[in-house]
Amino acid sequence: MDFVDELNRTHREVTTGARKNMLLRRHYDADVQDVWQACTEAERLARWFLPVSGDLRLGGTYQLQGNAGGEILRCEPPNLLRVSWLFGENPGFSEVEVRLSAKDGGTLFELHHTAEMPQEWWERYGPGSVGVGWDLSLLSLGLYLSGGAKIDEETFHETVEGRRFITGSGRAWGAAQQAAGDPPDQVAAGVAATVAFYAPEPSS
User: E strands of 16-68, at which residues?
Assistant: First the structure.
């Protein structure tokens, strides 16, 4: 699989304001039911994303291992899932919504992450602080659905392909941010900071 080609399969949009919205949209060559189960069944979710625990039903709560947790706000199989997405000790508003629909013999996958972010954080990192992580997850989902092996996110940034993917993702989110109206110098600084965070230069 060409990881950069996979990166280019995703359309990204950014909406600014008091709440920021990051949209990812792409097509998978798998039917809607298969993608839905991959995103909502604990055993399958752990194969490409993270182990999850909790009361996995509408109104229940979930916790991703070492990551976000929250409440299951909407669940309409096999097309719509919305959860609160809370991380850290004092999280603000943050929700993730996944929409699936049949298209071109496969599945159109849309992910919206809407969150309140401190302005200083947004100015420093921009949408890539969230978006690069989602790009890595969508890459892993694509590999899983096509029968490939899960990427190792602990070491992926150390590979040539991984660095290319992360750099390309950061730049793509920068382009979406600039299209939303943020200043070019702020965008460039945010892209550089995000790429440095996800793919730090190897120590000599």
Answer: 20-28, 52-54, 61-64
CB 164 within 8 A of CB 6: no
Asked whether 55 and 61 are in contact (CB, 8 A), the reply is: yes
> Cα–Cα distances in Å, from 19 out to 22, 178, 184?
10, 17, 20
What digits encode the pLDDT tens for the residues 146-183? 998 888 888 999 999 999 999 999 999 999 999 999 99
Among 42, 48, 90, 43, smallest CA distance to 63 is for 42
For 165, list phi and psi in degrees, rounded to 5: -65, -50
| Residue at token pair 């097309």 | 79
Q: What integer pLDDT is reported at residue 204 of this predicted model?
A: 57
Q: How far apart are CA 104 and CA 113, in angstroms?
A: 25
Report DSSP letters for 110-133, one per residue: EEEEEE---HHHHHHHTTHHHHHH
* Strand partners for 71: 61
- Report d(CA 126, CA 42) in Å as an integer: 31
* C-alpha to C-alpha distances, 119 to 14, 58, 173, nearest whole angstrom: 15, 33, 17
Classify residue 173 as exposed, middle or buried by CB count within 10 Å of its CB (0-12, 13-18, 19+). Answer: buried
User: What are the structural domains of the chain?
Assistant: 3-198 (3.30.530.20)
